[in-house]
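Listing 4. Sequential folding, example run.
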Amino acid sequence: MTTAPPVRPILLEDILAARERIRGVITRTPLIRLRHNITGVPEIWLKLESLQPINAFKLRGAANAVALLSPEAREKGVWTISAGNAGQGVAYAAREAGIKCTVLVIDKAPETKIERMRDLGAHLIKAPFDACWQAMDDRAYPGIEGTFVHPFDDHDFQAGNATIALEVMEDLPHVKTVLAAIGGGGLIGGIGAGMRHVAPHVKVFGAEPETAAPGAASFAANAPLEFPQWQASFVDGAGGKSIFPRMWERLKDTVDGSIVVTLDEVRRAMRIMAEKVRVIAEGAGALGVAAALQGNVEGPVVCVVSGGNIDLKKFCELVVGG
């Protein structure tokens, strides 16, 4: 087990420095209007992180975290834990920097994401979800050596994610609400920290599937909780079994809560984005839109489409059958 560094606030200068550091690696993704024409639903805009080079937001945090590694840490190589998107982010950033990369992969990760990580040069080791989740807390796994890059509980990773908040405010200054998926909490935590600096009046909510919603339970109890009813679903890029206490330290003062959506609502959101703006979103990437379509948040609302890494056959089955 490796001791985690102390939790410290993400400062505005951390975020501004991250933006400059990752500028040549990431894409400044567009913000587009979702014209849904649904009565009672607010104005919705989509922040298309699915258009990053790895088709997911994780490249922002990974690029910043890898760029800040010491020469000694780089020499050891890097490793991370992932169902696919974080692994792609770290593998991509490591390849750009000439560093070897290993990914501890959740064994139920979609084959599409596994192939993408392998294509980026990562060495893959599969393990059950519970073992991977424990390794995230331990920051260690038997047989894996190198410098660990945590996929969410990492200051530099979250500072990279926080650059999304800067772009949102530059493109839509009158936004009232931002919605993003909660998995481990690194995306929403970064966005929340960024918004508290540049637009503290904007509400920031997470979105979780009904099958994996520890964030909503934690906000309701004002304490980090486990989610014993956890079930695997097609929303593989979000929804953990718990909120880590260290993550709760970050989220409790920067995020306003989490909205739970049904799997049917996620399918509907995926279908609407495909029909209206021809956007392909994976399950996690559609969580924010699913929450916005409930009509319970103030608009204009920005929904972060966190990723689009889904097998096309599976996507078609979900949106046609939903």
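-- end of first protein; second protein begins --
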Amino acid sequence: MGQLLEGVRDSLQRLDGAAVLDILIIAALIFGLLMALRGTTAMTLLRGGFVIVLLIFLLGRVLDLSVVNFIIRNSLPGLVLGVIVIFQPEIRRALERAGRTRMRRWLTSSEHLAAIEEVSEAVIELARQRHGAIIVLERSTGLEDYIESGVRLDASLSARLIEGIFYPNSPLHDKALIVRGERIVAASCTLPLATGSGADRLGTRHRAALGVSEETDAVAIVVSEQTGAVSIASEGRLIPLRDETRVRSALEALALHRNGTRPVPAQAS
């Protein structure tokens, strides 16, 4: 411990104005890159890779694993270059998005409830008329990659607008609608299809809802075109509702609580 403190003291004594400026510039570049990647799936992958590398580094240091330490010392430049090459499309899209986005304001609880009220009202009417639909509510994981596959709307959230979008044969009724906060961000968005066990027995809308819930923490609501039945996909699980009037309570349990709270069993069939 004493040697560590002595080393820190020596490093601080060698710091001058140029060294401080150098550190600040590098820190600003890293922070800017992380902010640019925020809202993409690449950010989630980077976090996972960083955790793995950090654990390996700590194990090598604590257990004095010479081979592991040697590999880490000599592979760091290659890892940085590899990350840039692998995530080049995501980095490019994130940088483009960073140049045109505004600062996103935090939503209050009342605003969240108002958004869920509009979505629930639209889902109930869509189910009554048996108009197929898939609505995705963005949470902490950004859905920008999927938004870019559709048509950007950036419209105020309204039950009537959602119903119009999913009216049969309307230009945007196919694929998914994505909601962020109190805004309809985009429609006709392509989502990843679930490929797990039993997914092949589901329709395309249900597979898409399940797929996006597997890859992100988003909540997806599906209305069946054949039966009008409503299902909610969350955390890789598809939850059918006994009737559409339970949509609001289910969304409040899933979308408002970021700790993974699930709906009560009585809501699922």
